[in-house]
Structure formats: C-alpha cells, structure tokens
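Here is an idea for our session: we take a single protein and study its fold together. Once you have written the record down, we can walk along the chain together.
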Amino acid sequence: MYEVKGHIQKYWNSRGKDYDRSPGHVSLPEVWREVLASTFEGRMRILDVGTGTGFLALILAELGHEVVGIDLSRGMLAVAREKARKTGMDVEFRLGDAENLPFSDASFDAVICRHLLWTLPNPQKAVKEWSRVVGDAGKVVAIDGRWFDTSGFVKLKRFVGRLGIALYEKRNPWKNYHYRKEISKILPFYGGSTPEKIVEMFGEAGLSNISVRDLSWIREIMLKNQPFVYRLAWGGRPYFMVEGVKVV
C-alpha cells in the first residue's frame, strides 16, 4: 500500500503546476459558491479532503467557514497555499491521507471531497474516517461522477477531443494523465463511481439521511462555455453529489 500511495503522491506532485489549466477543475466559481452555500448553512468548521489546489476550500472560506484542506500531494498544496496568499483567504492547508486522517473524533462539523474517490485504494475506509471526524449531526459530502467510459465510440470521441485540446492549449493532455496500469487496477473506483455505490458506502460508515443531488447541469454549463474540443472530450458524463448525516 505504501508503494501505491507513493506513486499516487508522485503523480499529483507532477500535476500541481498545470492542474488549474483544465477548465473542468476550476470553472464556474460563482456556480459552486451557490451550491456550497445551499449545502452548508451557518458558520461551520469544514474539512476539504483531497483539496488539491484548494478550489472548494477557498470558496468555503469566502463564504465564512473555518476550513482545513488536506491532500497527499505537496505539489498541489503549494499551489493552494499560494492561491490563498494572493486572495487573502484564511485556510489551513495540511499534508494528509484521506484514508488515515490526522484528526481526533468529532473535530469538524462537515467533510467534503470532490473528484477524490476514484484515486483511493480503500474508499470505504476513507468514508468511515470522514464519518469519524464529524460530530453529531455532522455532514459528509462527496461530489463525484463517471470519468471514463470504455466503449469504443466514447474512447474514439475522447481521443479526438484530447487531440483538439493538445492543439488548443499547446500541451500534451496524455502526458502523466493516467496512473500505471498496475496501480489503476487496484483502485476500486478508478474511472468513476455511481450514486448507488456511494450511498451504500455512506450507509456502511454509519451515515443516515443520505441524499443524492444531480449536478450534471454544472458540467453542461461549463462545457457550453468551452471550445468544441472540450465538449467532445468531456461531454455526457454523470455528475452528482451525495450527502449523509452522522447521528450519534
């Protein structure tokens, strides 16, 4: 497991410097601000797991929450800290493992993750950790989707789209894009997940009042404002939010 996480850490360290160049990661902050404001009411202490370059963490801080963001990658955290410095947002960014959180029980009012489950070797353990660190009536939120489709037509469409992205952005979208095959094969949600699977994990972690919210409209808005090559590469993917509440 150490070798697996070491590879994952190295991969994201290399992605940190150009991660925000992808519209799929940092588009529509005003839309996400509305979504987060409706999800977390009042002032809360929130843990952003797999914070990456801090996109959600910084918006949550802007909304008035006390935010801690953790990530396995020092490279991603360096970018997040620099963004916080430039915007004047007070967010604590820490190195940490989503499956082994360095926090005591009931340390937070809520935990959120976005686009994280696919990269975890043991997502069920992670969800149990997230449930552990929220207090009574604490909320756990996972934003996820289906990232890869292995059908021939979709693979061809994605290839053509990425080729267009390479020409449009003048970068290689295939370089360091995937984990090694031996790594990806042992990640249960590599390629994405479904709401049903996440709901099941939430229930096994002791969460209740579980709900699913469709967020595909966010991706539709994002793609509408992007060049055709992005719509070709990223279109038609399910996108959703799963929420659960811890009742002690």
Observations:
- Residues 2-148+190-224+238-246 form a domain with the Rossmann fold fold (CATH 3.40.50.150).
- The mean pLDDT is 88.
- The chain is about 45% helix and 20% strand.
- Strands lie at 45-49, 66-71, 91-95, 108-114, 134-145, 207-214, 239-246.
